[in-house]
Amino acid sequence: MAKIKTIEYFRVPPRWLFVKITDDAGNVGWGEASLEGHTQAVEGCLDAWIERYVGMDADEIEHIWQTSWRLGFYRGGPVFMSALAGLDIALWDLKARKLGVPIYQLLGGKVRDKLKVYAWVGGDRPGDVAAQAQARKDQGFTAVKMNGTEDLGWLDSPSALDDCVDRLKAVKSLGMDVGVDFHGRVHKPMAKQLAQALEPHHPLFIEEPLLSEHPKGIKQISQLTSTPIALGERLHSRWDVLPFLEAGTVDILQPDISHIGGISEMKRIASMAETYDVAVAPHCPLGPIALAANVQVMATTANFAIQEMSLGIHYNVGGQDLTSYSHNPEVWKVDGGYIKLMRGPGLGIEVDEEQVRRFSEGAKAWVSPGFIGPGGEVREW
Predict the structure, then answer these.
(1) According to the CATH classification, is domain 105-347 in 3.20.20.120?
(2) Where would a tag sit more exposed on the chain, N or C end, judged by fewer CB atoms within 10 A?
């Protein structure tokens, strides 16, 4: 029985928060607790949990998860669940490495040898995406995702939606599938119009047509279109997810493993979604540890659909990308729209600790961008 000896965290560019757990036998595991725009809050939560969890049995992953969830009185939400994700992923990595097997072997074994993936094109203010989509096709992708619109008012000119339709058509003309992310920035009067305008052009899915704080509105939009509705990045536990499954308003669930308490909760949410015939396509515009954790769970998940990758995403600036911070970045090579399942122990990636420590020195917390409307009002980003 190995006890947790140290828990460390590292803020690294472009906007990630890595967690390292070491037990008293020298075994190591890595996790990712990234919560975009709220790094300091997650670090504060980790500070409190480090004091509590050092000395606990590193093998008792579920006990530590339940301790985090049930003994805090206040629970759930993005900050707590992102901090917990960092610990949970690191503990799974540590345990699997100690046993010399991939994490998926501890979750029941794999059901696939490769995973379908997609990448982003465009940015927060999307423009001409055809050239970017061609570049993604040249990289081996067969599917991409793009933001649907720039910022919009509650009621905007219908012409503000025309560009989205044109961009969807341009990318599909290359023979690629396209998910369109409304990003929660489109309010219901416009979202209804955009969903129907896109439908004849068959997007792969529309994502966050409304914010998840508007479940009745999402249900209304789901009844207006046959396009699959995807959402879930701003739901932080199985209890958050359940009402959308029960209402039948989500077709593709997109939980973020770094925002929902890690591998343990991702496995539970995926199984719950399967009972409603809902596919899982994990949200992951984050770092290599988070992506590797998703891959380990999705390797075991029957209702897995497609995996988001942050390779070359517009947020990755300053030289750091998905291929940074590891000794084996070749695991992210895309071929025919798929990546191969990693076969190494633990997460299947080998973290370059020297690089992590070097880039964490003086690293600034990422600040979420935002939109200001023509009247000076704050708009949804």
Answers:
(1) yes
(2) N
Q: What is the separation of C-alpha 130 from the centre of its chain, rounded to a whole number of angstroms?
A: 25
Which of 38, 63, 183, 202 is the catalytic position?
A: 183
Residue 269 pLDDT class (50, 70, 90 cuts): very high
> Measured between alpha carbons, how far apart are the two ends of the chain, in Å?
47
Tokens coding 45: 């939560």
The answer to whether 155 and 167 are in contact (CB under 8 A) is no
Please write the tens of the pLDDT for every residue from 139-155. 999 999 999 998 889 99
Across the chain, mean pLDDT equals 96
Instruction: Give the whole-angstrom CA distance, residue 323 versus residue 335.
Output: 16
The tokens for 374 are 């023509």
Question: pTM of the full predicted structure?
Answer: 0.97
Q: Residue 259 catalytic?
A: no
Catalytic pick from 38, 202, 283, 327?
Answer: 283
What are the residue ranges spanned by the domains of the chain?
4-101, 105-347
| Largest pairwise CA distance in the chain | 64
187 is catalytic: no
